[in-house]
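does this look right to u?? heme C version
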Amino acid sequence: MRSAVATAIAVAALLAAAPAAAQDVAKGEKAFAKCRACHTLEKGGANRVGPNLHGMFGRTAGQAEGFKFSDAMKNSGVVWTPETVDQYITRPRDFIKGNRMAFAGIANEQERKDLIAYLQQATQ
Ligand code: HEC
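got this back:
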């Protein structure tokens, strides 16, 4: 119970921390084309090459149900927030050494911010 409350508070803080005007969700949805081959976002969506990302914000890395993560991801101890997702998708290989996501990264900061804003909406 306590942890459920703590999680709810953490998620509320994450959502409040994102200034709406600075990101463009529609552009973020377009940027998601880079992820779509491997990830679904909706509740109960399929795992593909990568895990379904529903509910990822506020969750520890490597916990999505029914997906076989690398040990590197499971043991990373990373909690997904807009900040950690930003660091991860900038250069996945460097942020969690040895993880298996075969994606080079997104260099453009605004594109990452738009994408994260979209993910925050689409994974709830
Ligand atoms: C080629 C397939 C592929 C692409 C493209 C890809 N991913 Fe991934 N993703 C993976 C795999 C595989 C994992 C699991 C890695 C592991 O277990 O080491 C993963 C893991 C993740 C995780 C961690 C999930 C969790 O529950 O811990 C996030 C977040 C994520 N990807 C976001 C993205 C985003 C955002 C994009 C687009 C910018 C993207 N991925 C593009 C394959 C992909």
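Residues 34-35, 37-39, 49-51, 53, 56, 61-64, 69-70, 72-73, 80, 85, 89, 99-103, 106 surround heme C (CB under 6 Å). idk if thats expected tbh
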